[in-house]
Amino acid sequence: MPTIRPYQPKDKENVRHVCIETGPAAGQTGGPAYDLELITFCDYYLECEPQNCFVAADDNDEAVGYILCAEEFWAYRERFLRDYAPRVKNFFMWVKCQGSARMPKLFVKGYPAHMHINILEPYQRMGVGSRLVDTLTDRLRAKNIPGLMLGVGAGNVKGRSFYKKYGFKRLLRIPGCVLMGLDL
């Protein structure tokens, strides 16, 4: 059973690997989708808010899953759009990248924090996801953050079911994505 612990700089490449292998760019080693995944769903959090990142580490202390969080949307949005979005060079991918920093602002008052979670397939359905969310929500509650938001693919039935069972509620459904929030 993986151990849940705070992210450490030594985890960066393993976390990036998990990000790619659990997303649409699985198996790629470059290209627009690969860049989009890492820039939009990984690098900002590891580089700017590592204190809000936790990993599930295997017996060799290598990250096999993670949860990453930006605790305050407006600070995240400003820095992400200024420093990270310009790294995406493909125009179509750049538009998608922009959307990830703009859409959630509808719910930011009640859910100022947002998260990304990914776990390699062999470690899924073992309670690792719940333990990662527990660890993050304990941290956010200690900081008096009122809510946590995430976006999940509309076709990701297992993911949506997990979040609903955990206590997240649907905030908004848009083509291809469901925004969900958890009151803390």
Low-confidence stretches: none
**DSSP strand (E) fraction?**
15-25%
CA radius of gyration:
15 Å
Q: Looking at the structure, what is the overall shape?
A: globular
Q: What's the number of extended β-strand segments?
A: 7
- In angstroms, what separates the terminal alpha carbons? 27 Å
Given the structure, what is the number of helices?
A: 6
Strand order of the largest sheet: 1-2-3-4-5-7-6
Q: Percentage of helical residues?
A: 40-55%
Structural class category: alpha+beta
SSE string, helix = H, strand = E?
EHHEEHHEHEHEE
Largest sheet: 7 strands, mixed
The average pLDDT value, as a whole number, equals 89
Give a verbal description of the structure.
The chain has helices at residues 12-21, 32-48, 73-84, 91-102, 128-142, 157-166; strands spanning 3-6, 54-57, 63-70, 113-119, 147-153, 169-174, 177-183. It contains six helices and seven strands, in the order βααββααβαβαββ. β6 and β7 form a beta hairpin. The two termini are 27 Å apart. It is α+β, with helices and mostly antiparallel strands and 184 residues long. The mean pLDDT is 89. It has a seven-stranded mixed β-sheet with strand order 1-2-3-4-5-7-6, sandwiched between helices.
Task: Throw out a few tags for this protein.
23% strand, seven-stranded mixed β-sheet, 6 helices
